Structures are given as C-alpha cells and as structure tokens.
Amino acid sequence: MEVKKNPKANLENYVKIFLQLGLVLALFMVYIAIEHKTYERSIDDLGMSTLQIEDEEDIPIVEQQEVKPPPPPPPPPTPEVLDVVEDESEEEETIIESTETDETEIIELDDIEEVDLDEEIEEDVPFSIIEDVPVFPGCEKGDNEKKKSCLNAKMQKHVQRKFNADLAADLGLAPGKKRIFVMFKIDKKGEIVDIRARAPHKRLEKEAIRVVSILPKMKPGRQRGKAVGVKYSLPIVFNVE
C-alpha cells in the first residue's frame, strides 16, 4: 500500500511564516535594547574630613647677648729714673777690648795633638771589593783585574793537582756532581788562615782543608795602601761515578 503524504505536514509551505516571525522577533529585541534605560550612579557625601594638626611647640626666643671686647692691655711700666751724675764725680767705665788681631801680632797656640789619619784597617775585606788583590806567585804582571783572574786560575789548578778525587768513590756517595765550599782568609802577611769547609762527608771536608792549607804564600792584599786580611771563597766541584 503506498503511503500518501499529508499536504499540511510539508514544512516548506510555512517558510515564509517562519521568516516573518523571525524578523518580528529580531525587531522586538532591538526595540527592547534601545528603550533600555541606564541611570547615573550617585556617590553619597562622605562629609568633611578634619585633620588634627598638632600644636606647634613654642620655641623660646633667645636674646643675643652683646659680647664685650677684652679690656686693653695695661700700659708699659714707667721707665726707671736715671741717675744724673755730675761731671765732677768719678765713675768707673767698662772698656771692651777689641778681639781683632794685627798681622804683626804673634799668637801663641797650645800644643796640637797630631792625629794619624792612616790608621790600620782592622776588619777583613772581601775579595770582590778589595782595592789591591793578593798576588799569587806568578801573577805579578798586569792590572788589578788581571791579577784577580790569574789568582782564580792558579787556585783551580792547585786544587785539581792536589785534591784526591778517588776519596769520594771510596766513601760510597751516590753518583753525580758533588760540591765542596771552602772559606779561608789571606792575612796581612799573605798566609792562609781560618780555613773552613762544608762538604757531603767529613773526610771530604778534611781533604779540602788539607789542599787549601798547602797553598803558597802570597803578597797580601791592600786597602787604602795598607795591608789587610782578605776573605776568599773557593768552590770545589767533582763528579762521582
């Protein structure tokens, strides 16, 4: 059986009616929005605010006192009354003698003690600053610098010839380079005195002192023309294999 549609159930027939109702509803809402009234907000008066101001303190008025100037200094004392001496009275006069002397006047002087300016210099002088260095035998020629270089070279040769280098190996020292520092003085007579040594072993110190003690006698060093003691340092370096 074929179903027939009711013409009243077709909604397309009511499209125009729905459109008109929508327009009317929109116009009504616009009208309501336009006619809506707004009222101004009013703020109640809060009244006058009062501020409490503290009373100002009464500051007393200080009167300015006048400063009186200091009193003037007392007048100078009255000068003493001078005694007037008559011409007839005799008064002793003080005579001031002149200290100037004449060329012809002979002046007697007390005995003048002579002072020896060339006093001997007691302190020893280091080798580096001595004016005239000690002279090693065979180093007499040349200036002070050449004599100094010659003395150093002669010292080294003497140590190389006289020092027992095999002693270090017998002492069982570790291999390597070893140093001995020897300090002594060449006195006013040119002799070697006050020998001291510092070494890795006591026997090496004794050997170094023995070698230095047999140095030849030298011409002593001089400071300001006077013979003085001269301090000298001699390093001895050797290898232990």
Report on the architecture of this protein:
There is one protein chain. By secondary structure, this protein is of the alpha+beta class. The protein has a domain at 125-240: TolA/TonB C-terminal domain (2-Layer Sandwich), CATH 3.30.2420. The chain has four helices and six strands, in the order αβααββαβββ.
Query: How would a textbook summarize the main sheet?
Result: 4 strands, mixed
- Total number of helices: 4
Query: Per the principal axes of the C-alpha atoms, what is the gross shape?
Result: elongated
Poorly predicted sequence stretches spanning 5 or more consecutive residues: none
Stated plainly, the CATH topology of the domain at 125-240 is called TolA/TonB C-terminal domain
Spatial gap, N to C terminus: 137 Å
CATH class of the domain at 125-240: Alpha Beta
- Give the C-alpha Rg: 64 Å
Note the run of SSEs as H and E.
HEHHEEHEEE
CATH superfamily placement of the domain at 125-240: TonB
Strand content is: 5-15%
Total beta strands: 6
Structural class: alpha+beta
Give the helix level as a range of percent. 10-25%
Strand order of the largest sheet: 1-6-2-3
CATH architecture of the domain at 125-240: 2-Layer Sandwich
If you average the pLDDT, what whole number results?
75
Give the SSE layout.
Layout: H1 15-35, E1 125-126, H2 144-162, H3 166-170, E2 176-186, E3 192-198, H4 202-213, E4 222-223, E5 226-227, E6 230-240
Parallel strand pairs: 1-6
Antiparallel strand pairs: 2-3, 2-6, 4-5
